Amino acid sequence: MRSYPRAFFLAMLVNLLFFGSMHLLMVPWPLYITSLGGLTRDVGLTTAAFALTAVLSRPMAGILSDRWGRRQTMLLGLLLFTISPVLFALLHTIPLLILVRMLHGVGIAAFTTAYIVLMAEMVGTSQRGEALGLAGIAPSLSLMIWPPLGMPLLNRFGFTTLFLLAALLAGLGLGLTLFISGRTANDEEPHRDPNLAPPDGRFLAVLQQRCVLAPTITTFTLGVAYGSVITFLPLFTTEQSLGNVGLYFSAYALAYAVSRMPLGRLSDQIGRRQVIVPCMAGVALSLGLLAFTGNLAVLILLGIVYGVASAGARAALDALVVDYAPPEVRGTAISVMYAGLDSGIGGGSALLGLWAEYVGYGGIYLTVGLVSLAGAIAFLMLTNRPLEPAITCID
């Protein structure tokens, strides 16, 4: 592994704390809503409020990152993630909790958008894929650590302590971020005058560029795939009596974390396109074959394949967008692509839920396999001629 500035690893630690704050509440949250007298639909509403606000606030998060700065936008996200759990503990009515979950959604949009760009600009262009692969392992590590701890901590200490712990994790990240330098690598163009950043209306103008549009469409299909797994796989495995679905998620998370950096490095060496297309084919295959899975061993194997393939695709897609977007619109470009991811997770899950009534859960995964394959084909078609150089990407 090549050398990285100390600030890079400090930012990785902040990212781990940020997602720890979120994943710690993943399992207890539905129980908290029902403990207040909420119904299943109220659990869905609070979750939808978080996800929908994250999607809608992505454009502004990108523009803030370009105008205001990467670190400052991360601080905003961390501040909202520190405040929100405290308000969860203080407020005990569903409508107010929905409003706070919306603040929570703004927080994840602000932090994750700025974080990706900050990490990309800390390293030279020749190691960007490797760097973004390494920078993106925290969510998977967090998933392996915090959700299993959520219920034992809840049973021992109660909801209030759990919320305060989530606030503490984000608050620690907030404090550490103050020590992160915003300097760029020697071969990286410095961040330009914020007055050159695009106005709000340029969000769509950035999206229309092939160097952003192609990764966004492909990332949208990755969002559909991920949404189908986290939403419907537990139901599918129960229906098919396949055993403990948690082993699939553990295999996926471990494979994802281990694979991101080497596959990101491979994209530095042989090209982003050469990694993205085979990895998208791997995503399509691993999800399509779920429809025919008959035992737990095969399920776990497909989880490993899905983890490796999605890790490589995500790392190379992140690097591709940063490669071609000029510094003054990088935040906006990343926000466009991540809005595609969020939309795929939320919108795809909703539509697949309706589709399941006609084709069943197995049919869902055949469909998702085809959608993922379509994402690979769309990427191939949109990148069949060289992408615009960075300097002209938004002309």
Commentary on this structure:
Helix content is 79%, strand content 0%. Residues 190-197 and 390-395 have low confidence and may be disordered. The chain contains 15 helices and no strands. The longest helix has 53 residues, at 330-382. The chain has 395 residues and is an all-alpha fold. The protein folds into two domains: 6-196, MFS general substrate transporter like domains (Growth Hormone, Chain: A); 202-392, Up-down Bundle (Growth Hormone, Chain: A), CATH 1.20.1250.20.
Draw up the topology in text:
Elements (H helix, E strand, L loop, with lengths): L5 H18 L4 H8 L4 H29 L1 H21 L3 H28 L6 H8 L2 H8 L1 H11 L1 H19 L24 H6 L2 H31 L5 H25 L1 H17 L7 H29 L5 H53 L13
Main attributes of the structure:
395 residues, mainly alpha, Growth Hormone, Chain: A, globular
Give the N-to-C terminal Cα separation.
Answer: 36 Å
Q: How would you state the average pLDDT, rounded?
A: 88
Total number of β-strand segments?
0
What is the CATH domain class of the largest domain? Mainly Alpha
Radius of gyration: 20 Å
Report the biggest beta sheet as strand number plus sense, adding barrel if it closes. none
